[in-house]
Amino acid sequence: MLRAFEAAGRLLSVTHAARELSVTQSAVSHQIKALEEWLGVALVGRDGRRLALTTPGAALLPGITSALDLMAQSTAGIERLTRRNTLVVNATATLASQWLIPRLAGFCAQMPGLDVQLVTTAGFMDFEPAQYDVSIRCFADADLAALPERSGWRDVSLGAFIPDKLTPVCSPALLADGRAVASPQGLARFTLLHSRSTPLVWQQWLGEAGAPDLQPAGDLVFDHVHLSVQAAIQGLGVALGNPRFLGDALASGLLVMPFADVLSGDKTFYWLRPARAAQDPASVAFCDWLSAA
């Protein structure tokens, strides 16, 4: 009940609260109604089509937000005490498979005796940073401004370490026998490989490359970026990838970049560290290692 009310009151939206909590809008509404019946007062109302807090709701919200934040930090702190010499890192599957895992041995060599647990989740913001010692996510500048408004994200420090610059990549076999492309418009002869986790990147890239109305020969859609890149290696089409993530595949010739100088992207990868881990040597060392990448 409390979490549903806190999310809806903070975001002033049942829809956004449901998305953050990974439940239905109906579930959020029922939980708020149950809390109102238990307290005997109305906590939310409507200002036109927008959710609005009543006077009792506005008075209650800050205390509940603080309490939930404290509970998350305390629980995570207890978990940390029970796992000595362990660093729990959260990242997306693509970042983990393409960039972090190939380099992780270098960090582990600097921290002998430290166990690293790598947890991959797909959520962009719908997770609690306090559950992990360090998390890694990709944000645009506009996303950063919204972070302090989210429950569990206050007092989270962060640092940028890799710009998310994207460029088309494909198997060299796809461009053999005179099929090379001289301009982005030439991509119309190929199948484009997409990711459900980043559904708009091709549209954005083509727009910036001067081919906003391009109609490809076909489209294939995968759940994650690293799957679309793997499909590109197999010659199924052209994917968008970050050259910083694909160094080994590019160096070995598994992938090529048709347009070496055409890059796009307005996001950056950041490490996130909750307040409880601010003085933890392993967490600090890992963030420093990422920043030096």
Account of the protein in words:
The protein has 293 residues and is an alpha/beta fold. The chain folds into 2 domains: 2-79, Arc Repressor Mutant, subunit A, CATH 1.10.10.10; 84-293, D-Maltodextrin-Binding Protein, domain 2, CATH 3.40.190. The protein is built from 10 helices and 10 strands. A 6-stranded mixed β-sheet has the order 4-3-5-10-6-9. The longest helix is centred in the N-terminal third of the chain and has 28 residues, at 55-82. It is globular and about 75 Å long. The two termini are 43 Å apart. The relative contact order is 0.15.
Order of helices and strands: HHHEEHEHEEHEEHEHEHEH
Q: What is the β-strand count?
A: 10
Record the strand order, biggest sheet: 4-3-5-10-6-9
The tally of helices reads: 10
Q: Could you give a short account of the major beta sheet?
A: 6 strands, mixed
Strand content: 15-25%
Please give the radius of gyration in angstroms: 23 Å
**Spatial gap, N to C terminus:** 43 Å
- Quote the average pLDDT: 88
Helix content: 40-55%
Please describe the structure with a list of short key phrases separated by commas or semicolons.
Arc Repressor Mutant, subunit A; alpha/beta; two-stranded antiparallel sheet; globular; D-Maltodextrin-Binding Protein, domain 2; 293 residues
